[in-house]
Amino acid sequence: MPTRGAFGVILNDTGQVLLVRRRDFPLWDLPGGTLQENELPEIGVRREVREETGLNVTIDHLVGTYFRLLHEDEQSIFVVTIQGGQMVRSGPETKELAYFAPTALPKNMVALRPQQIADALAGKHDLHPIIEENRWAFRAEKILQKLQRNRY
What is the pLDDT of residue 129? Predict the structure, then answer.
């Protein structure tokens, strides 16, 4: 079943990127997530960022919509600016929040995020890349997801 998600690149005053350490998988990710049925990415990114971080954001621009063919996944990446709210350190979907320098991103990140962050920092707009994925890595990821679900 195809999935659609929206994620926000949030920078602090020193140019560090805000990342969320997920509860469901031991990975760091941009704040964001799966869109609800018929939800526009521009609405979903604000909802998801608020749910995961407690922050209210406005959209500066769309970096791009990235398509992962094997995953049947579409990810809209936005540069967003904090407009209010109170940052939460953890929550139902969030194990931890932290800012990272773009040159010192954690190794255990969701696939494509380092490239998407680099595209955002380079000021790119309205990209539409189609990502050719490694079939063996894809299969390994599916096995790990199944094992993870069976643990709980």
Answer: 83
